[in-house]
């Protein structure tokens, strides 16, 4: 069976099924999630009751329908999800895929672990790690995903470089992200919002083909990227 391959130089500690990166002193690396780990249990409710209807002016149900449509025929692939959150990928991914999810919140990943176990994913691993510095070997994944989180990443160029490193040459990246041109002027969305034009420029600079998808769901833009043919 295919497995998720990590760099030989990376050291980890696994606690309750979650992999944590450790430093040279064998201490777990700490990160600061936007919600805070002690409030992780509220994440799904906040997304459904507040973020989607009030901030995104969209529908969470429609969001999952879009994702299910895009991934319904994806089977037996190695998939990496950036900012995996509370594990809502179980709502749209088939459980025969090999899955790795990364997030800076160990609290959210503990919730995700329960979901992946419940949905009987045979090969799913979760890592507490920064999306710009993952522990995986080069050319390791067929598909990468990032939903609703790209605006929180501290360095989009560094993230895209990391994405390119871990994806296979013929791999694809699926993303949903709020963009400012779709936003109501009085609504405040956390993070840095990039326009569609800015996103296109950033991904093309790193050798990706940028393709917006024809879905409408409030402030969200859905797009896919693939690397240019070598």
Topology (SSEs and partners):
Layout: E1 12-15, E2 18-21, H1 43-55, H2 60-71, E3 78-82, E4 98-103, H3 106-118, E5 124-128, E6 141-147, H4 156-166, E7 167-178, H5 196-205, E8 208-212, E9 220-227
Parallel strand pairs: 2-5, 3-4, 3-6, 4-5, 6-7
Antiparallel strand pairs: 1-2, 7-9, 8-9
Outline the structure in words:
The longest helix has 13 residues, at 43-55. Strand 6 (141-147), helix 4 and strand 7 form a beta-alpha-beta unit. The chain has helices at residues 43-55, 60-71, 106-118, 156-166, 196-205; strands at 12-15, 18-21, 78-82, 98-103, 124-128, 141-147, 167-178, 208-212, 220-227. The chain has 230 residues and is of the alpha/beta class. The mean pLDDT is 93. The protein contains 5 helices and 9 strands; from the N terminus they run ββααββαββαβαββ. Helix content is 26%, strand content 24%. The protein has a 9-stranded mixed beta sheet with strand order 1-2-5-4-3-6-7-9-8, with helices on both faces. The chain has one domain (12-227): Rossmann fold (3-Layer(aba) Sandwich).
């Amino acid at each position: 069976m295919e497995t998720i391959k990590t760099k030989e130089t990376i050291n980890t500690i696994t606690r309750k099924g979650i992999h944590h990166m450790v430093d040279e002193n064998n201490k777990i690396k700490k990160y600061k999630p936007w919600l805070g780990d002690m409030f992780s249990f509220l994440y799904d409710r906040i997304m459904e009751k507040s973020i989607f209807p009030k901030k995104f002016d969209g529908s969470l149900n429609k969001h999952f329908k879009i994702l299910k449509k895009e991934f319904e025929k994806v089977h037996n692939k190695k998939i990496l999800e950036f900012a995996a959150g509370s594990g809502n990928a179980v709502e749209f991914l088939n459980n025969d895929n090999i899955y790795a999810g990364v997030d800076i919140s160990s609290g959210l990943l503990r919730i995700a672990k329960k979901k992946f176990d419940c949905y009987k994913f045979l090969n799913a691993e979760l890592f507490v790690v920064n999306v710009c510095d993952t522990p995986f070997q080069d050319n390791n994944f067929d598909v990468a995903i990032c939903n609703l989180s790209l605006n929180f990443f501290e360095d989009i160029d560094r993230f895209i470089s990391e994405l390119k490193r871990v994806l296979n040459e013929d791999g694809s990246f699926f993303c949903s992200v709020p963009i400012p041109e779709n936003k109501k002027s009085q609504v405040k969305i956390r993070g840095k919002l990039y326009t569609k034009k800015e996103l296109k420029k950033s991904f093309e600079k790193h050798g990706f083909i940028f393709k917006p998808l024809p879905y409408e769901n409030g402030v969200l833009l859905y797009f896919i990227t693939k690397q240019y043919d070598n």
